[in-house]
Amino acid sequence: MIHVSTFSICLLIVVSSCNGLRIQSKKTMPTLERLPSIPSNELGEGPHWDVQCQSLFFVDIFGKSIHKYVPATKRHTQADIGIDFVSFIIPISGYKDKFIISIGRQLAVVTWNGESKNVSNLEYIAKIENNTETLENSFNDAKCDPVGRLWAGTMGELLPGGDIAPEKGALYRYDNGYLNMQVNKVGISNGLAWRSDGKKMYYVDTQKETVDQFDYDIITGKISNRKILFTVRKHNIPGRPDGMTIDSDNNLWVAMFTGGRILKISTQKPESLLQVYHIPAKQVTSVTFGGPKLQDLYVTTGKISLHGEVLNPPENGGTFRITGLGITGTPGVSVRL
């Protein structure tokens, strides 16, 4: 069994030319490491870097657990929720050891010291609507806008073989104890990111296989003028877009589920693929920047069985870190309740 995987990444640089796109492959300085102190997860997801405690928080959705990793000590801890799927964890601004998480169809506030195997308090604060068509829906990805306003999305029920029921999910904005639907007929609500000036919001519905953009009003949290920014199939890229983050140059980094890679795409020019980073795990689920200067990219992956395919650990389901990228990210934003 491989205990540590550290190696140079083969980086694909996509160059525009009058003859279309040509791909150049070359060795670059970035290196990829599987973090050996973090066990292989069934479905690692929702990485969030907490600047205050210099720690990475994430979840194992199918493992129904929340996780913490401290790079300075290489220490990994987890708490088992055990009630239902847990798809994200985000610290709450102004409170120590308090987080907002999803538990199935509900949002909850938990108190966790980052060490115990159990949370010390759990309080439900919101639940998605009850109707006959969405009773089997559950939360998926979530993130806060630059002022701490929570956005959280859902997906439909899990079908035999691992597919998700189409167009049953939605994207919600959480306001003062209420979930306000902003986008309906969503397949799998996933990646969220905001431009540094707060004027654009970027969004992934995995089943659409696109990265979309909205005009964003940072004062009211209203979205408008939805447009496609990037179409996966136009670039013949395997997999489907999942979680994503944004760097200090306002470029998006998109995890490709079942594609074994991360895409770096431009927000300045539609359909502009800048770079491709290959990951030795097929189910790449999400990414976030972390480290003292937000210079490292953390990557979560899964190893769930889809259509009978078996994915072996430790790479599949592993948590990875890419260093030496020569770029910095934007800080994770805590929830303001």
What's a concise summary of this model?
The chain is 0% helix and 53% strand. It contains no helices and 25 strands.
CATH topology-level name = Neuraminidase
Find the count of extended strands (DSSP E, 2+ residues).
Answer: 25
**Oligomerization state:** single chain
Low-confidence stretches: 1-8, 13-26
Tell me the radius of gyration: 19 Å
Cα shape: globular
Biggest sheet statistics: 9 strands, antiparallel
Number of domains: 1
Strand content: over 45%
SSE order in H/E notation? Answer: EEEEEEEEEEEEEEEEEEEEEEEEE
CATH homologous superfamily heading: TolB, C-terminal domain
| Helix content range | under 10%
What is the distance, rounded to the nearest whole angstrom, between the alpha carbons of the first and last residues? 44 Å
Number of helices: 0
The overall average pLDDT, rounded, is: 92
- What's the CATH first level? Mainly Beta
Strand order of the largest sheet: 19-20-21-22-1-2-25-24-23
CATH-scheme architecture: 6 Propeller
**Structural class determined from secondary elements:** mainly beta
Protein name: Regucalcin
Organism: Psylliodes chrysocephalus
Subcellular location: Cytoplasm
Cofactor: Mn(2+); Ca(2+); Zn(2+); Mg(2+)
